[in-house]
From TrEMBL:
Residues 89-146 form the AB hydrolase-1 domain. Transmembrane segments: none annotated. This is Abhydrolase domain-containing 18. InterPro entries: AB_hydrolase_1 (IPR000073), AB_hydrolase_fold (IPR029058), Mycobacterial_A85_antigen (IPR050583).
Length: 235
């Protein structure tokens, strides 16, 4: 499995970001790390290895970028308004830098997004905000309500980066074209968030799969089982 390291300065986040890219062709898949995880986390915990067959056969090309969790939602040293503004810069980075990069390299006009735990938040937030750019969404043990990080403060940046708030009022045509999988499990601490998001999608008649696995916890072993299954749904 080919692996390349990239480092660049992002004008949208005003930070240097790092990323691993696996494969040399195929459908572009952006995979976010869990809470405060780095670009190498999904490799180190075996998630990328679980889909080696898809990469080696040229079916997917996987991009694993850094996030800025420690500067945004998890940064208790700044006001919640500034946490949200900082994260809005990360969203702009995805729109203007990473997603166009992945589309250009692969020659595909849209992407798949995936992530485990808080990585599932990053994936779902972007997919539902920018559905014209995303054809597939795979979350594993995701949590989707960002208000737990805002200390009771609320503004437009929080609203538009909180899927359970903005999604009910969105009528973007491409939401109904997306292949959406919400993966969770019986003993997942985030199971309730997945059921909540599934109910919002049901109310909007948006087709999706709420995949609740039996006898599993919020942890990497079940996510490594889920991810290759979900990638197999890309057509």
């Amino acid at each position: 499995m080919t692996e390349k390291f990239h480092r660049w300065h992002s004008p949208n986040t005003n930070t240097d970001l790092e990323m691993l890219v696996f494969g040399d062709r195929g459908y572009p898949v952006i995979v976010f790390p869990t809470t405060k995880g780095r670009y190498y986390q999904n490799k180190d915990f075996g998630l990328i290895g679980s889909v080696k067959w898809f990469v080696d056969n040229g079916l997917v090309k996987i991009y694993c970028p850094d996030t800025i969790d420690d500067r945004s939602w998890y940064n208790k040293s700044i006001h919640p308004a500034d946490r949200a503004k900082t994260y809005a810069g990360y969203d702009r980075m995805l729109v203007n830098e990473l997603i166009p990069w992945a589309m250009h390299e692969t020659g595909v006009g849209n992407v798949a997004l995936a992530g485990c735990s808080f990585g599932g938040y990053h994936a779902a937030n972007f997919a539902f905000k920018h559905p014209e750019k995303v054809r597939h969404l795979f979350t594993m043990g995701g949590a989707f309500d960002i208000k737990m990080f805002t200390d009771g403060y609320y503004d437009d940046n929080i609203f538009y980066n909180n899927p359970v708030d903005f999604l009910p009022g969105s009528n973007h045509h491409d939401l109904w074209q997306m292949n959406i999988v919400l993966g969770t499990s019986d003993y997942d601490i985030c199971k309730g968030y997945n059921i909540q998001l599934s109910n919002i999608l049901k109310q909007k008649n948006i087709k999706h799969w709420l995949d609740i696995r039996p006898f599993a916890n919020h942890d990497w072993p079940i996510w490594r089982e889920m991810f290759p299954h979900y990638l197999s749904t890309i057509k």
